[in-house]
Amino acid sequence: xxxxxxxxxxxxNAYFREEFSKxxxxxxxxxxxxxxxFLSFLYKENxxxxxVKEDFRINKSAYFELNKHIPKDATLLHIADDYGQIxxxxxxxxxxxxxxxxxxxxxxxxxxxxxxxxxxxKNKLYIHNFRD
Length: 132
Hints:
Blueprint: H1 3-27, H2 34-40, H3 46-69, E1 75-79, H4 85-93, E2 98-102, H5 106-113, H6 116-121, E3 124-127
Parallel strand pairs: 1-2, 2-3
Helix pairs in contact: 3-4
């Protein structure tokens, strides 16, 4: 292929990426990933599911707004006291993010680390301390 054709391909690719990004902005509201998030906690204890749902209900607008201010390919260190739900939402919103999450509570960290979306996407790592 000649340089002219490669240049045209790059322009077409950039155009479709831009249009897809606009479409996502139009379609994805603060509840867009709600079902996927809740399903990832489906087989956890009822108390955990209640806490995740309540946290989402209270903070979904803040999480949605936070996403707009974090670069699409950011590497994040998140110090948390939750079950990894924020990490899941941030990575669902932008798959190229790399998230290191420090959850001091061993039980919460293990629950977050065993979430099937964490295993599937492999862009989240739950650490025990800052040396990890």
